[in-house]
Design brief:
The complex is a heterodimer of chains A (about 300) and B (about 250). Chain A has about 300 residues and is of the alpha/beta class. Chain A has two domains: about 220 residues, Rossmann fold (3-Layer(aba) Sandwich), CATH 3.40.50.300; about 70 residues, Alpha-Beta Plaits. Chain A has ten helices and 14 strands. Chain B is globular and about 60 Å long. The chains are: A alpha/beta (about 300), B mainly alpha (about 250). Chains A and B meet through helix 2 and helix 3 of A and helix 1, helix 3 and helix 4 of B. Chain A: It holds the Pfam family ABC_tran.
Chain lengths: ~300, ~250
């Protein structure tokens, strides 16, 4: 897949001297959903703002669809749609007018049929004549998405689109994102909800203190870094682990009524067979077994902590 | 040139104007009528003619200038300040538009509104006094240039302002006094010599003088100098707006 957004050695130093981006290099592939993860102040919004033209880069280069976002800003920007983190809408404008305004700003002529399609897709059609200040928070977020889609962009930046919305609406948003991807739109998503990235992203980029720590296929990342836990419920609680059973990656939990064994799924041997044999030899009776896999959130926290250490 | 963008900004701003049309229309008509009642009838009846023009008719160009300047500044400054305040400025900054297109959209709409109000006041004045316009083309030129330049000036104030207080600061503390002391209600020649000299440093004097000349052929300064002054002010405002967009001052990080 070719890169539709190409960021090379991007640096941003604010007037006060704070370096928000420290030479970020990132290629975003056409048609993918890239989740940009990072703690607060990591540089996610600065990166998006610089690509979109709100913030000026101190150095480095950004191209969108092969067009430089400074020297060929018209062509570059016309390919981009942005849904900002904050709900920013003029309160007295109607939904229809505010969406029409954005389409005009992007140099597109009037196309009522297209705007109707976008508003219907986002369940906003019956609110088209409502003023934005009359809408709920969730509806306002949909209006922001409608505005971003009003000129049929090829690249859509969603800066924490589901922050503060309820679970149902969040899942609706995921469905909308899935539909957009099916239409061929490239989506860059920043989020605090790791489950969101886990649910919809194709690739994950982790940013911390203005540096990209990794960019990897989500599934590969989870396979590569995932650890599993085997939980063993015991018939009778143990006060301590017998020496023949004790291992570094085995711990006694819940007042001795259960054991948790951590293992690497990519390893040649998991050690489960030997552990179960040891338990049998030590005369420890088992009640139940279950396994759990670490989530993207665990991986993310691990990565950020590891880098900070 | 992104004409769709210019149109989108312009239409949006004009729709805001039409949403409050009653207020936009009634307010200038009412205040102009009050000026004529107070200055034209109550006080004006005790004032002699100024160079052969009745006092009521003499103040019409100044009244129009007063409203046009304050309306142009107020509309343009609010038009760009409000998106900054609500955060919606992001969509202008991320759109494929250059500074010229943004300014033409915002300042063009503000100038149109000010022009509309200027015309409303002109027609209102015609009910109270006998008007004559000796140089109609010059009158239109002065009116359009004043609307344009003060809309640009208002645009700059709107970008500079960080809060609503600052938004009002320059119009209230600088522009209004300059307009009132700029010969809107009197001829500069009525002042003592020292104040006549001081008045020559007030740029509004040149605009009011030139505009009044287009009505009655009377002016405090030569009309050529008035035209140069308004053209120079417009050029200066354009240069400042260009610099703002080139550097991103107070709009781009």
């Amino acid at each position: 897949m070719t890169a539709i957004v190409d960021v090379t050695d991007l640096r941003k130093v604010y007037d006060g001297g704070f370096e928000a981006l420290k030479g970020v290099t990132l290629q975003i592939r056409e048609g993918e959903i890239l989740a940009l993860l990072g703690p607060n102040g990591a540089g996610k919004t600065t990166l998006i703002s610089t690509i979109c033209g709100i913030t000026r880069a101190t150095s480095g280069r950004v191209s969108v669809g092969g067009y430089d976002n400074v020297t060929e800003f018209r062509k570059a920007r016309s390919l981009i749609g942005l849904v900002p983190q904050e709900i920013a809408l003029e309160p007295f404008e109607t939904v229809w007018n505010t969406v029409s305004l954005t389409r005009g700003l992007y140099g597109r002529g009037r196309d009522d049929a297209y705007l109707e399609k976008v508003l219907r897709q986002l369940s906003l059609w019956d609110k088209k004549d409502a003023r934005t200040m009359e809408l709920s928070g969730g509806m306002k977020r949909r209006v922001l998405i409608a505005k971003a889609l009003s000129h049929a962009p090829r690249v859509l930046f969603l800066d924490e689109p589901t922050a503060g919305v309820d679970v149902d609406l969040r899942r609706d948003m995921w469905n909308i994102v899935a539909d957009l991807k099916a239409d061929g739109v490239t989506i860059i998503l920043t989020t605090h909800y790791i489950e969101e990235a886990e649910a919809i992203a194709d690739r994950v980029a982790v940013i911390r203190k203005g540096e990209i720590l990794l960019v990897e296929e989500k599934d590969t990342l989870m396979r590569r870094m995932a650890q599993k836990e085997l939980r063993i419920e015991l018939q009778a609680p143990l006060s301590t682990l017998p020496e023949s059973v004790a291992r570094d990656n085995l711990r006694l939990v819940e007042d001795g009524s259960a054991l948790v064994y951590t293992y690497d799924t990519t390893g040649e041997r998991t050690g489960i067979t030997r552990l179960l044999a040891s338990l049998s030899e030590a005369g420890i009776a088992l009640k139940d077994l279950s396994t759990t896999q670490s989530s993207l959130e665990d991986i993310f926290v691990g990565l950020v902590k590891e880098d900070a250490a | 040139m992104n004409l769709h963008a210019i149109r989108a900004i312009y239409v949006k701003e004009m729709m805001r104007f039409f949403r409050t049309l009653a207020q936009s229309f009634i307010s200038p008509v009412l205040s102009t009528s009050l000026y004529f009642v107070v200055f034209g009838t109550a006080i004006g009846s005790r004032i002699q003619e100024v160079d052969g023009v009745s006092y009521g008719a003499f103040i019409v160009p100044g009244l129009i200038m007063l409203s046009v300047m304050t309306q142009a500044i107020s509309n343009a400054s609010f038009a760009i300040f409000f998106p900054k305040f609500t955060g919606t400025i992001y969509e202008v900054l991320t759109a494929p538009v250059n500074f010229l297109e943004i300014v033409v959209g915002y300042a063009g709409a503000a100038a149109t509104k000010a022009l509309f109000i200027g015309v409303v006041i002109l027609f209102t004045a015609a009910f109270f006094v006998e008007l004559q316009i000796q140089h109609p083309l010059a009158m239109i030129a002065f009116l359009v240039l004043t609307c344009t330049s003060f809309s640009l000036f208002g645009f700059i104030i709107g970008i500079w302002a960080k809060n609503f207080e600052q938004l009002q600061l320059i119009p209230l503390l600088i522009v209004t006094p300059l307009v009132f002391l700029g010969g809107s209600f009197y001829s500069i020649s009525m002042l003592p010599p020292v104040w006549q000299t001081i008045s020559m440093f007030n740029p509004v004097v040149y605009l009011v003088s030139g505009f009044r000349w287009s009505f009655y052929g009377l002016s405090d300064v030569p009309v050529g100098i008035s035209l140069v002054a308004i053209a120079g002010f417009t050029t200066l405002c354009i240069a400042v707006v260009y610099w703002i967009f080139r550097t991103g001052w107070r709009i781009r990080d």
